[in-house]
Design brief:
By secondary structure, the chain is mainly alpha-helical. It is about 70% helix and about 0% strand.
């Protein structure tokens, strides 16, 4: 287990990145009249607010908030790796 610990932390980091980036393009391409009101992700919400409703400042604020959450999760994963392994990922 100690030999593959760096690999596990890289996989954890990629899993957290996948959690934040949920594939908005797939939801956008395959949406139809049935799923339009029921399917809502953060990226689709930002797209609708910014480009369809022309509320650029609010969409930018939501995008910045998403980026801040991503940075906090990245640094918390790095802190966890430093506590467990003794060295950081970054």
């Amino acid at each position: 287990m100690p030999g593959i610990l760096p690999t596990l932390f890289v996989l954890l980091l990629l899993g957290i990145a996948d959690l934040i980036n949920n594939g908005m393009d797939q939801y956008f391409v395959f949406q139809n009249s049935i799923t339009y009101n029921k399917l809502e992700t953060l990226e689709l919400y930002t797209y609708k607010q910014g480009l369809k409703l022309m509320d650029y400042s609010y969409a930018t604020a939501v995008g910045i908030f998403k980026s801040l959450i991503s940075i906090v999760l990245l640094f918390s994963t790095n802190f966890l790796a430093k506590k467990v392994r003794g060295e950081s990922i970054i």
